[in-house]
Amino acid sequence: MSEKPTPKGAMIGTSFRRVDAVAKVTGRTRFADDLNLPRQVHMKLVRSPHPYARIRSIDLAAAKALPGVVGFLTGKDVPEPFGILPVSQDEHALCQDVVRFVGDPVVAVAALTEDQAEEAARLVKVDYEPLETVGSIEEGLLPTSAPLHGHADEGNIHKKITMQFGDVEAGLREADLVLEDVMFYEGNTHLPMEQHASLAVPEGDGRIGIWSSTQTPHYLHRALTKVLGLPASRIRVVAQPNGGGFGGKSDPFHHEICAAKMALNLRRPVKICLTREEVFFCHRGRHPTLMHLRTGFKKDGTITAQHLKTMLDGGGYGSYGVASTYYTGALQCVTYDVPRYRFDGARIFTNKPPCGPKRGHGTPQPRFALEVQLDKAAVALGIDPAELRLKQVQPAGAITANWLKVGSIGLKECIDRVVAGSAWKERRGRLPFGHGLGIACGAYLCGAGLPIYWNHLPHSGVQIKLDRSGGVAVFCGETEIGQGSDSILAACVAEILGIALEDIRLCVADTDLTPVDLGSYSSRVTLMMGNAAIQAAERARDLIAKAVAEEMKLPTTRLVFADRRVFDAENPGVGKSFAEAVQVAEARFGTLGTTGSYTPPRSPGKYRGAGVGPSPAYSYSAAVIEVKVDPETGIVEVPTVWIAHDIGRSLNPTLVVGQVEGSVYMGLGEALMEESAFRRLPKSRSRALVHKFPSMLEYKSPTFVDMPKVVTYLVEDPDPNGPFGAKEVGQGPLLPIMPALCNAIYDAVGVRVDQVPVQPHMILKALEDKRRGGVGRFGPKSFPKLDYGTPLMVPTPKEGGDGRAVNAEEIGIKGGTMTDRPAARTSP
Amino acid sequence: MMRLPSLQWAAPRTLTELTTRLAADPASTKLLAGGTDLIPNLKRRHQHARQLLWIGKISELQGIQPEASGEVSLGASTTLTAITRSDHLRRHYPGLVRAVASISSPVLRNMGTIGGNLCLDTRCTYYNQSEEWRRSIDYCLKEAGDTCWVAPGSPRCWAISASDSAPLLAAIGAKVSLHSVAGEREIDVEKLFVDDGIQYLAKRPDEVLTRIRLPAVSHSRSTYWKLRRRHSIDFPVLGVGAMVASDGGGRITAARVFLGAVASAPLSVDTSALLGQLPTEELVHTVAERARDLATPLDNTDFTLQWRRRMVHSYVDGALRELCGLPAKVVAPREGRFAIEV
Amino acid sequence: MNADSVTGSFVLNGERKTVAYPEHHTLLEVLREECGLPGTKHGCELGECGTCTVLIEGVPVLSCLVLARQCEDQAIETVEGLESAEGLHPLQVAFADLGAAQCGYCTPGILVTAKALLAANASPTSAEIDEALSGNLCRCTGYRKITEAVDLAAARLRGEDRALPSLSELCGHPHGDHSHE
Q: Looking at beta carbons, which residues of chain C come within 8 Å of B44?
């Protein structure tokens, strides 16, 4: 553990049992599909078998004739568009006149049983007129490709971004070594074990409730309000505990909106649980991303400038795509000091399920490119790759070239830990042929600095109700998706009030009853909800302290809240039980309740696009991976992963280590086997453009016996913005895994695979290339040509900039930006 | 939830009752053993049945019986787990145990049967998909369509024989008994299969595979090398079942190698180069080259076909080196070893 | 509602249960929809993920691939049967304390599979635990905490007084490696 002493609380810093642990090990946790109500009917969605087609007609007659069928919806019933981002309102609960990927929903059918609904769905006849499809980034760039949407920046280029921070070309000229790489990161999906499910319940008085597996009940609430045309106050969204999310349940989905609409129409509860294949169609997974990375290095390995170009295959709809595209460029400068930086990004519409946010949202792809390129630079310059990184780690409090404010940073210690643990210095480059070690680092947000829609409201709110029983009820919109947010909420309150977890009852993720929390995404919950919870609890504590101090005739400063008591610090025997203390306060002030809320600090960046990347704090990770590569077969085995994570402060080490190990697992899946691959059949025949294997069997997700040993180190360097100093852990530790693996393969057999997932044939091809006198590389050969336009020029802090672009008007950017908003008033 | 279509279900108690009921309507009746293949296929609507006959209660189809002749009779509904746990089989047929232990995962092996694994429907990533998915490609030759998407110009279906036990049982020369109301016949395991993705079994629809007869083992060794992405759950993308017998002087008296998962049936590799010889790396290499030339992996399972083809060479070479006591050249697969070692 | 309803009877978590269900329904469907036991989850209904594992006569099987009709008079155990009046099963305690359940969705299937393993092998190595559970996918944990929890429960079931890992054991030690040696 860290040498730095961290104050130890009764709860905080200990491996207390999760508050939902017993429910989960007894099968009592109710996931959305576990809910059932009297008079409930079952709904199925009829989905498009075509990747791109116009709907000519829909014939429901045969389906209507089936016994048990009670209702239908078509596009006409849900004409209002929606989408998670205000700038991409391009989805419909049911397609209006065009379908854009295989799996796009067209009709909803409800029947008394699921068997009947399924049969009815098969009998719905839809007549389609197939259209010319866009199957790849390259096709989407063709001027002849017919645009999928009207709101794209240009043709099928959904979004184009270009921005420059400092004179990058000058920086590259100053370099002793300039490396230029083209790399590819294949798409993959979240694959939560739970298939999405929803139960929509009309409440008779024109109100509708939906109990759903969603990571973002607040955003679903907004989408329902828009599409159903009802006031928000008449819609209730409850997020049931999610059986895994990883970003895959962060968008409002068609089935949720259709279930609500159907329930309103039929005036009875409507249930839907997706099949596994439909979960693949919902997707919103990792964007397949092509990257072009050009970086200048001094002889000592320090970076002089970097120019990153990315191109994302977005699929058929916007989803979070604009944010995802920004994220491919946003976090390149928060780990190492990149003094000058240019980023060009583009997202392309294709006729595939929409991509969106998956664990690491947009950042694993460029992180992969950066960390592999650093390894190449270290080899070229004859520097130890760990040393090369150590010498340019950003200092705490730095403001990056692209105007992100780094808070605490424990990255050096992370690198030191994994270097020591893996015996890196003794073993790297010295293992027998076929055995190797690779290192890489990563960084991630602790919550996005801005919400998804423009507003000045808090990102998280917590309400506390205390009463004479001594029990404390805590209300918060946060959503438990397995990461342990319920436990962190309860622990933060318990710690401040000096009570036990058993004294706390939670009411979460219910838009009728709980204050808004934006949802479980971008690793925001611990930091934002935690701070809101601490504020609410401190206000409750202060009320109680005031009343008790008056009665005990002591200054409030002498009161201690601990061990479920409130007592005199100088005379611990004198005091009250917590319940008695609450009674004193209730008698003194009336019914007791407090609130807390959290709004992130403002970011120094003021340019268009500065809204993506800022965070109250950044977490850091470093990993060393050991590989065995069979040069005859190209098969890679991973015996051990050493990983260190800068957690700021570990609120519960068991939960933290669990998140680290889970991230390592998912990273290895992405590095070695997981891919969202598509098949395309000849235009003259079926015209199909389909997910190659939308199943748990053929989408390869590592099993128990594929998982290596993991050695985890937690580096604690409390961050002033974190609750009790804590930072995130759910996403960051995934980031170093993919590049560390590829760097280890290089150490083992001397070849580069510049793309993931790494397949055995790629290693064999690279080895063959090397034998024939080539560089020994497998990867994409070229980056498509695209004019990204004139970059937004933003002087860096070192150049004396003020965070604003100097040419915004010249290049036609009008109006303010979200980061330019007036400061929100702090809550009273 | 993905569900079965409506169907009738019955559990005959005797083999006679089973064959009689089957003979009444062989076209729309399916035999249900472990269900690990049939149930998903019915749920995805690429196999169809109006009636399921569950064979789990028929005693004639059960049991592992060593015979006085040294042969062993395996009931077709013996679970794969029972095979991996049988002391007799572990001692005398470690290659079979290794092959069976490599099938899917422990929980699937608790359900799946040896007869079911032999009769496993051929597999293809254009076929093992939902009704809706297959509609999006306009179906395929194996079910409801007119094109084999793996090889659109070809008149046949190229779905893959994905049984792990078949190449091994073929290599050791096992036989299967087929019963129907017309009587019983026994054929070599290798004759059970036809290299056609649709008509992949020589068994008639009214016949029941009842027992598997393992030959007595003397002076022979067998092994199974399985290639797949993950170390559990996955079907093979290549299976090499191999048997080598030698005389007292170490000369090879018999050698049989069958390839699984590279065609619609297990493929027999020409091993004549080894016969009568003392094993050498060169001879093994020759057989491995013949195996590679024989295999025609196609793009209908995991991994690239070029790599799988190359792996045919590596794995046949590796399996024969193991059986001939020659030094290993590639890392042997972990698959199936565990059940033997613990 | 369905024409082809049948009535079946089995011993569910130690109690005789007689229930009507459509003839083509699987054990998974009948447990969740007719028996009021939604503790058994489902992730694919095709036998590919292990989530719906239950015990039939003590043997782990996938309830999505078994017709309820095959279970006549059989003893079936689900996650709901692990807890008793005496309290949680030691596996449940270990899973709760070691963070082996994150989202908890794969947990019911893994718990019953682990119970069957420990009934057959009281002292499994980590490798044996991994092998026994290798048909159960989990996307949250990276598996190591689950292996450790089964190992801890096994020790406690053997009567060993094994404490929870200390902070230093949690961090910096190779997880899932205790008994490979």
A: 46
At A123-170, the pLDDT tens digits run: 999 999 999 999 999 999 998 888 999 999 999 999 999 999 999 999
For C5-81, CATH number? 3.10.20.30
| Residue appearing with tokens 């962060």 | A250
* Residue A631 contacts B, CB cutoff 8 Å: no
| Encoded tokens for C173 | 């030690």
Domain ranges of chain C: 5-81, 90-170
Check whether residue A441 and residue A511 sit in a common domain. Answer: no
Is there a contact between B1 and C42 (Cβ–Cβ < 8 Å)? yes
Q: In terms of CA atoms, which chain C residue is nearest residue B231?
A: C134
Hey, are the CB atoms on A685 and B306 less than 8 Å from each other?
A: no
CATH number at residue A518: 3.30.365.10
B24 and C CB contact within 8 Å? no
Strand partners, C62: C53
Domain range C90-170, its CATH number among 3.40.50.150, 3.30.565.10, 3.10.180.10, 1.10.150.120: 1.10.150.120
**A678 and A711 both lie in a single domain:** yes
Q: Do A284 and A354 touch, CB atoms closer than 8 A?
A: yes
- Chains in contact with A, where contact means 3 or more Cβ–Cβ distances below 8 Å, are B, C
Query: Would A800 be classed as within a structural domain?
Result: no
Are C5-81 and C90-170 the same fold in CATH? no
In chain B, the residue whose alpha carbon lies closest to the alpha carbon of A50 is B136
Among A263, A282, A301, the domain boundary falls at A282
User: In chain B, which stretches have pLDDT less than 50?
Assistant: 341-342
Let me know how long chain C is. 181
- Tell me which residue of A67, A668, A596, A382 sits closest to B6, measured CA to CA: A67
Judge: C65–B35 Cβ closer than 8 Å, yes or no: yes
**Is position A30 within any domain?**
no
From residue A200, how far is each of A73, A226, A514 by CA, in Å?
15, 17, 19
Of A118, A681, A697, the CB nearest to B3: A118
Question: Does C42 contact B at CB distance below 8 Å?
Answer: yes
The ipTM assigned to this model is: 0.96
Nearest to A633 among B149, B306, B311 (CB): B311
Interface test with A, best of B132, B235, B335 (most A CBs within 10 A): B132
- At residue A144, the pLDDT reads 86
Domain count, chain A: 3
Mean pLDDT for the stretch of residues A755-762: 98
**Residue ranges making up the domain that contains A63:** 38-131+190-282
The full DSSP string for B68-125 is TTS-EEEETT-BHHHHHH-HHHHHH-HHHHHHHHTSS-HHHHHH-BHHHHHT---B-T
Between CA A757 and CA B303 the distance in angstroms is 12
Chains that touch C (3 or more CB pairs under 8 A): A, B
> Confidence band (pLDDT; 50, 70, 90) for A684?
confident
**Which residues in chain B have Cβ-Cβ distances shorter than 8 Å to C54?**
none
Q: Are residues A245 and A258 in the same domain?
A: yes
Element (H, E) at A291: strand A289-297
Interchain CB distance below 8 Å, A681 and B302: no
Q: Which among B4, B54, B81 has CB closest to C70? A: B54
A686 touches chain B (CB under 8 A): yes
- Average predicted confidence (pLDDT) for chain A: 96
H/E stretch holding A416 reads helix A411-421
Q: H or E element: which one contains A645?
A: strand A636-648
* A709–C174 CB contact, under 8 Å: yes
Chain B residue with minimum CA distance to C43: B1
A533 and A639 share one domain: no
Q: d(Cα A208, Cα A224) in Å, to the nearest integer?
A: 10
CATH classification at residue A75:
3.90.1170.50
